[in-house]
Write a structure and sequence with these properties.
Elements lengths: L1 H40 L3 H6 L6 H23 L5 H24 L12 H24 L1
């Protein structure tokens, strides 16, 4: 009996998880494009490319979209277990802000982390844009699911 329930639970979880990841990837692409346009207008796409030793806008856009999709998949893995999508969007935005521009990106550029500057005006603007990314992701996710 327990074996049947486990098989049934797995059969129900896999489609929900697949749908959640698909919806989050779509949301990540939409949010990535919107956020990428904003970043390009601010002259930041070249900085993304420089993480890979390039100055190319195409390379910057490619890296940015891959990162957007990876972060979106993380959102989808968590979102499958909650109905509080916009709260998750806020928490996700804070998390990717810490992971991306405060830790990983500056370390890849040989600068160490930017955690000590987290509350400077430039980093707070970065927080707002990452919150925007995640809330757009959450909005699209909710519409697709």
């Amino acid at each position: 009996m327990a074996e049947t329930m486990t098989a049934k639970s797995e059969a129900q979880v896999k489609p929900a998880l697949t749908k959640s990841i698909q919806a989050s990837v779509i949301g990540g692409i939409v949010a990535g494009i919107i956020f990428g346009i904003l970043m390009q207008m601010m002259g930041r796409i070249g900085m993304i490319a420089s993480m890979m030793g390039s100055e190319s806008l195409v390379v910057g856009w490619g890296i940015h979209m891959v990162i957007s999709i990876v972060f979106a998949i993380g959102f989808g893995l968590i979102a499958v277990n909650t109905n509080k999508i916009y709260l998750l969007g806020i928490l996700h935005g804070i998390a990717i802000w810490i992971i991306g521009p405060l830790v990983v990106m500056p370390m890849m550029m040989g600068m160490g982390t930017m955690l000590s500057q987290a509350f400077s005006s430039g980093q707070l603007m970065s927080l707002l844009t990452h919150l925007m990314f995640s809330l757009i992701l959450a909005f699209v996710y909710k519409k697709v699911v």
